[in-house]
Write a structure and sequence with these properties.
- The chain is built from 17 helices and 2 strands.
- The chain is globular.
- Helices cover 79% and strands 1% of the residues.
- The protein has a single domain, classed as Growth Hormone, Chain: A (Up-down Bundle).
- The protein starts with a helix and ends with a strand.
- By secondary structure, the chain is mostly helical.
């Protein structure tokens, strides 16, 4: 495992996620300010976040494939540039709308769509770099390091965003997020080195052929990725509103943003500590499947606790449990996808990012719609869906994960790109759990 280069990639993910996290506490109230009405704001936020993720769903596999063809670094830099551009446009939505004589809400949606198309390049290329830099044996540890740094980004991002928006300046977090993305672009352009294996440059497999090969072997991991992101995105969408409506109905919006930002930061800190200190070792000892199941168990308990929380203290405890589940799942699911990949890591990671984005289309819409019906319903539904994820992890991930060591970025022992037959004896030695 190339620890130094891996740390550079992980730190880049930290900066990206810090920038992304900055806007989360302020987004509902910034949108409410632009919309000019609090009516059905939950649905508007859900549609706003869902449209962004829909474009990411459509674009992520293509970006992943491109990273296999032209290299990880240029694709990663394209994603960072997309972050900076989209956050700048969002922060200036009202000014741009005035210049164009258009609706500010329409401009905000347009900025999210442009951002979704470009930022879809970031995670597939970043996690493909992590796969390139780790052996099959240490991939879980590498993914855990990347996940921990992403978690730390969410520690500082929401906390900073909440403080910045405390006086009602809901635009400022977007500008700071754009600055963080631009700074990350400069750092990555100078420091990050190309990691793509040379053999991928000579691959002639077409984009759709790669999708066909990967989709057949990865579906259990992709389903679990979808479920994990679905419920977590729903929580992100509604938490600030839930905090105000259930516990502090008279609290001013800027104070809600500050308190929820600090709360999410604290939860993210606990999650990142767990991901960095324990999850990598758990994956190495128990395997990706077992750790993914543990994550869904945490989710089921945590979301049920969120729905029934009688006080802010129990809400915080429930959020910590959810954070522990997230810390378990991101590294284990990414490691599982990487080790089950049959072609280039970029295509596999692009598919996972695509399912993650698809979930972020439906998660906010589902949670926002349920929130209009009843404020507790999004979390009760998330708990039920997490039980479903646990069931998938138990039933579908039996005899599906290749564990034979493979060269970094290469195919598993059971995958033969040339299409030559593999004997049943080879299969029995290569696959377990």
């Amino acid at each position: 495992m190339d620890s130094k280069r891996l740390l550079v990639v992980a730190f880049s993910l930290f900066l990206v996620m810090a920038g992304f996290g900055i806007i989360i506490p302020a987004l509902p109230y910034y949108t409410e300010q632009i919309q000019g009405s609090a009516t059905a704001i939950g649905f508007t936020i859900g549609a706003l976040m869902g449209s962004y993720s829909l474009v990411q769903f459509l674009c992520s596999p293509a970006w992943g494939h491109l990273s296999d063809r032209i290299g990880r670094k240029p694709v990663f830099l394209s994603g960072l540039a997309g972050f900076a551009l989209s956050f700048t446009l969002m922060g200036n939505a009202q000014h741009i709308a005035h210049l164009l004589h258009a609706s500010p809400l329409l401009v905000l949606f347009a900025a999210r769509l442009v951002g979704g198309m470009l930022t879809a390049a970031t995670l597939p290329s970043a996690f493909a770099m992590v796969s390139d830099l780790t052996s099959a044996e240490n991939r879980g540890k590498g993914m855990a390091m990347a996940g921990a740094m992403m978690g730390m980004g969410f520690v500082f991002g929401p906390a900073i965003g909440g403080i910045l928006a405390e006086n009602g300046n809901f635009q400022l977090p977007f500008f700071l997020a754009a600055g963080a993305a631009a700074a990350t672009f400069l750092v990555a352009a100078v420091i990050v080195r190309e990691t793509r294996p040379e053999r991928l440059a000579a691959e002639k497999r077409g984009f759709f052929a790669g999708l066909a090969v990967e989709g057949a072997g990865l579906w259990p991991w992709l389903v679990l990725t979808f479920l994990q992101s679905l419920v977590f995105a729903g929580m992100e969408t509604t938490l600030a509103l839930y905090y105000r409506d259930v516990f502090f109905p008279g609290l001013k919006p800027d104070e809600v943003v500050r308190q929820v930002g600090l709360l999410m930061g604290m939860v993210g800190f606990v999650s990142a500590l767990f991901a960095g200190g324990a999850v990598g070792r758990l994956i190495k000892r128990l395997g990706e499947v077992a750790v993914a199941r543990l994550g869904f168990a945490f989710f089921a308990i945590g979301f049920f606790g969120l729905a029934l929380s009688p006080s802010p203290t129990t809400l915080t405890i429930a959020l910590i449990v959810v954070g522990l589940g997230s810390a378990c799942m991101r590294p284990s699911l990414s490691a599982g996808v990487s080790r089950a990949a049959r072609t280039g890591q970029g295509v596999a990671m692009g598919l996972q990012s695509s399912f993650d984005s698809l979930a972020r289309v439906f998660g906010p819409l589902l949670a926002g719609s349920l929130y209009v019906v009843g404020v507790h319903f999004p979390y009760l539904a998330s708990s039920v869906l997490s039980v479903g994820g646990l069931a998938v992890g138990i039933l579908a991930l039996i005899n599906t994960l290749p564990t034979a060591a493979a060269p970094t970025g290469d195919t598993p022992a059971t995958a033969d790109p040339a299409g030559s037959p593999v004997s049943s004896a080879q299969l029995s030695r290569s696959w377990r759990r």
